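Look over this entry.
=====
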Amino acid sequence: MTHTRISAPLLAALTLPFATSALAGFLEDSKGTLELRNHYLNRDFRQEGAVQSKAAEWGQGFTARLESGFTEGTVGVGLDAIGELGLKLDSSRDRRGTGLLPFGPTSKEPVDDYSELGLTAKLRASKSVLRLGTLQPLLPVATYNDTRLLSSTFQGGMLTSQELEGLTFNGGRLTRTNLRDSSSRDDIGYGAASSDAFDFAGGTYAINPQLALSYYYGTLDDIYRQQFAGLLHTQPLPAGFTLRSDIRYFDSRGDGNERAGEIDNRNLNGMFSLIHGPHRVSAAFQSMSGDSAFPFLNGGDPYVVNLVTFNTFTRAEEDAWQLRYDFDFASLGVPGLTFMTRYVDGRNVKTTTTDDGEEWERDTDLAYVVQSGGLKGLSLRWRNVTFRSGNGLTTDVDENRLILGYTLALW
């Protein structure tokens, strides 16, 4: 019997074309971006007896995102990465607490910098993708937060499938979270209570291009379980008008040992928007029933129409309404300039100190995105907030935010 020995260099040479072919999509479909965000937030507390007269901080955030394509074959493999770095530009112990910067547990001094690195492995088969590692879901029962220097992240696994025409399914498990102003990965939880995992499943079915229905179910083990049903409809009207309807309903109950106390909340909310040219006029409502506030994951945002700049209007028994107006100045020859103003009023709030609390918020946003030249894509935003409360609620705030953003394509 004759044995043929193949050297390592020869083996590498023979397999290189196949490896290169398999990696073609992995490399060719990859992309990298670097987002720069400069954020200044000044919050003036106006209520009597405030522990802190104001909170004012300024920081610079960097977020690098690297996304690969998939290798060739029946099952494609890919890898994504996110790296986040936040730097303190101005803050102090007596002005901390804006959510821009973490601070020491003992000294209470804002840190000079904080960071996070996350990796996500992904597998694709047919029209389904499984992601394992760092996740930033945008789902009714789990939505990451992206309103400060850095965005929050979760750890876990999520399957997204579009095997059936018109249906997008999402299901998975989240086990840990990294808050927007933190470098640590903490157990998933709600309020001061932590859990082993948050399991979720559901999807959205597009009946036609104008109408979509959604249903999701989520369980935060030993804390709460939650069901969501939603409807999104766009209706063209005569004379160039369009009516957009967004209706959302949540049913939240306690689960297992109820580590966060009793959870009992029904949340019906919706927004109707009339759009014509550069104008958009919206009216929204939100009604809470049950003995507790609306629950949502730490590190995330509630998926409600009254999630506004400062408040969420999701306290127990709260009824709230909103009026909003948006305008695009492109119609006046200034593309990239937009304006938004809104007013939200909440009543009948139930807390340990009141059964009839009231709160309201008025927001104004003015934003501009540079359209050409060397600074094309640079965004500038000014956000102004006035928030007041009464009848047993004791938070009054005036706030301004200045945000500069720019995203650079690395390749």
